[in-house]
């Protein structure tokens, strides 16, 4: 079973302390809803776990993965897949973007082909396959990025505000793919201000507050209270 652990972490930008925590880990078969106000550091935390950012102090380590290629200096890179809220897509068609990940998959060619055609169906990308990715709407971009991740069947996946641009239909399509990955054992960290269909899949909650991160069972009274407070605040602010 693979796992990424973060120990004795302090994260600062200049003199500003973002947070400090003793220990957090994300493993296969673990689903976590990451909550916190705007600017509390959710994206930064995901980037730390994905090896895209380095903590000011402390140690982040990957366990149980196959060893990195010799040329990769940062052993965390490539372990957990991180999907930004405005996903990065390559210049080219939707088909090009979907096929781009094939060399990085630890699956057989036949399995990749099957998964690619299933992903096109599940994300309803068929009519968009020849369209330039740059011309997709925000929700379509998210659907493509999640379909691309689904093909890879990552061991760990981090979704940063995945439903922020999506209508109900897109949310349902993505829910099917993410539920399927959960069934296959992908560990997931999902950041979202509000509870949504995806966060209802999560069994744990990490709450960023007052420069600390509190981990609880998602069904615990404290996690529910925090979620309720956040939603009330969100409704009031809008
Ligand atoms: N490279 C950087 N240099 C300086 N400050 C940064 C840097 N990256 C992020 N920050 C600041 O750190 C804070 C946390 O940013 P982050 O994007 O992690 O927050 P977030 O919780 O994901 O926010 P949101 O909910 O708005 O997406 C923000 O105040 C941001 O401006």
From TrEMBL:
Residues 4-235 form the ABC transporter domain. Keywords: ATP-binding, Nucleotide-binding, Transport. The keyword Amino-acid biosynthesis does not apply. Transmembrane segments: none annotated. The keyword Phosphoprotein does not apply. CDD domains: ABC_cobalt_CbiO_domain1. It holds the Pfam family ABC_tran. Belongs to the ABC transporter superfamily. This is ABC transporter. The lineage of its organism: Bacteria, Pseudomonadati, Pseudomonadota, Gammaproteobacteria, Alteromonadales.
